[in-house]
């Protein structure tokens, strides 16, 4: 079985697409495209984005990115597998963290600011009348 980079590169070459054309189409830097084609995912500055880069590349060369990523899951960097697993656990979890209600604090701060502005306006009006 071909590696994910080989699959993508061979499809790009069969389409007659250059790396420059692919770079323009995907907005992925040429160095990143080369690293993907060589399966050097750990060499990328952002290995957490590998799946997204592969999706964009696959779409640009008309390959089903979902099937491609599923078939080659073992080739992807460990960070991506950990993130995927964590997201699955979060999406199936019935206990979600609660965010404290900050509306009361926000209202109090707004009231303090409004009061300060009102006092300042009255003070300014008094000074304008006196002078």
Automatic annotation (TrEMBL):
Coiled coil: none annotated. Keywords: Membrane, Transmembrane, Transmembrane helix. CDD domains: HTH_XRE. It comes from the Bacteria. This is Transcriptional regulator. The chain crosses the membrane at residues 109-130. Signal peptide: none annotated. Residues 8-40 form the HTH cro/C1-type domain. GO terms for molecular function: DNA binding.
